[in-house]
TrEMBL record:
Cellular component terms per the entry's GO annotation: bacterial-type flagellum basal body; plasma membrane
Protein name: Flagellar biosynthetic protein FliQ
GO biological process: bacterial-type flagellum assembly; protein secretion
TM regions (residue ranges): 20-39, 51-70
Organism: Cryobacterium tepidiphilum
Primary residence: membrane
Function statement: Role in flagellar biosynthesis.
Keywords from the UniProt entry: Bacterial flagellum, Cell membrane, Cell projection, Cilium, Flagellum, Membrane, Transmembrane, Transmembrane helix
Amino acid sequence: MDSNAVLDIGLQGLVIAAKLSAPILVTALVVGFAVSLLQSITQIQEVTLSFVPKAIAVCLALLVAGHWMISEMVAFTHQMFEKIPSLLGGG
């Protein structure tokens, strides 16, 4: 296995990690921004007001994007297992 193969696998791993975490992170970012905007407009400074909506939104994002996330991870895993013979020099 040469260094190009290692770099390629590492790059693919980073890309799949970014793709899988994007729906959750973007959802938390948008809801967090909206809640902080609401808090700054209304002068309400309650800690649970920022946490609870974000937690609910992330749970909803997991419900919506969960199937896609699992199928992407399974496809990536199959792709990595298919590469094993060529990486070991057998194919």
